[in-house]
Design brief:
Elements lengths: L6 E6 L5 E7 L2 E8 L12 H23 L8 E7 L3 H18 L3 E5 H7 L15 E6 L4 E8 L2 E7 L5 H11 L7 H8 L22 H17 L3 H4 L1 H27 L3 E5 L6 H14 L2 E3 L10 H13 L17
Helix pairs in contact: 1-2, 3-10, 4-5, 4-6, 4-8, 5-8, 8-9
Length: 340
């Protein structure tokens, strides 16, 4: 191994996925994710249960990541971990493990902003895949965040638009709950939407200034519409499931792209990326490609495994921080709220 090689261990524990990854320079050697199925019983993530599961999972996940990568812990140059934002109890598990690991091996720590990680997942080396050029716009959409980020450099970013209430992922999951789907319902809406007519039903869309989003009125519109229809036909959802899913999905995607197009026009930027858990949605990916052709954008879509919460994106962000010697010390603590 040459002296120029940098080996980073990445740790992600911001919500309900425990993940560890090994990065060599900008190439991922392993990216292990342990999911928590217990939350399906409760219709959403239960913070206390999530943090307990992280405690059980983190050592086996790190061990598997090292073995899968063929890397000894003695070869690791630094450990990068998610400091925030996220669920505090979950973040504390990853932060505490990283502090102990750093102390035991006498290697530096890199405290990564989770949202930086989603954006910088685009810079993980993948064969045949182009990387965005600065500056670019990144639509970051997940269960907890919906943002348009102006990315000026690896570690220089500005949020130019955000949601004033619910995130796009919440809009998917909460409308899915109205339809009777189990948690998480967003992927099920995506699945049934492929079989439906997206123009069948029309729901209200917010009229927000600037680049900000709102999804609360949209969710209320869906709820009231379905309640009204079910009074006329108790089997309305079952009889129209695919069309409802397609119409809901189209509405959410339309809300997102109105603002993304406006930002692209106003900033004069045609390098456009998406990131975050909702970027795995097939309708969103298809629409980005479609509009990209119309607007002559150069578009960037992350690999599926780098869309949802994962340690690979934390490791690659840590790599750029490592290059600038942006190290944390043992006084660092997890933070549930962090600005990008």
């Amino acid at each position: 191994m040459s002296q120029k090689d940098t080996i980073i261990l990445g740790i992600e524990s911001s919500c309900d996925d425990t993940s560890a990854a090994i990065l060599k320079n900008e190439t991922i050697l392993s990216n292990i994710i342990a999911t928590q199925d217990v939350h399906k019983l409760y219709g959403g993530v239960v913070p206390e249960l999530a943090s307990r599961a992280h405690q059980q999972n983190i050592v086996p996940v790190v061990d598997q990541a090292l073995k899968s990568a063929g890397i000894s812990f003695k070869e690791i140059d630094a450990i990068a971990f998610t400091r925030g934002p996220g669920l505090l109890g979950s973040l504390v598990v990853g932060t505490s493990f990283s502090k102990a690991f750093s102390l035991a091996l006498d290697i530096p720590m890199l405290d990564v902003n989770h949202m930086h990680g989603h954006v910088l997942a685009h810079f993980i080396d993948e064969e045949g895949k182009d990387k965005p050029e600065f500056p670019f716009l990144c639509l970051t959409v997940s269960g907890g965040h919906t943002q348009i980020v102006l990315v000026k450099d690896y570690l220089e970013m500005e949020v130019v638009g955000t949601t004033i209430d619910d995130a796009a992922g919440e809009a998917f999951d909460k409308t899915a709950k109205i339809l009777g789907f189990p948690y998480p319902g967003g992927p099920l809406i995506d699945k049934y939407a492929k079989e439906g007519d997206s123009s069948k039903f029309v729901f209200s869309k917010p009229n927000m200034d600037g680049y900000d989003f709102s999804f609360s009125g949209f969710k209320t519109s869906v709820l009231y519409f379905i309640q009204k229809q079910e009074k006329l036909n108790s089997d309305f959802i079952k009889d129209n499931l695919a069309d409802l899913c397609a119409s809901i999905q189209k509405s959410i995607i339309d809300i997102l792209f109105v603002k993304l197009i406006k930002a692209s026009n106003d900033f004069g930027i045609k390098q456009i990326a998406i990131a975050g858990g909702v970027s795995a949605n097939s309708g969103l990916r298809t629409e980005l490609n479609r509009i990209g052709v119309l607007k002559k954008w150069k578009t960037f879509i992350p690999k599926f495994e780098f869309c949802t919460d994962n340690a690979a994106m934390i490791a690659i962000t840590g790599k750029y921080m490592y290059d600038k010697k942006m190290f944390a010390d043992q006084t660092i603590s997890a933070s549930s709220r962090m600005k990008i």
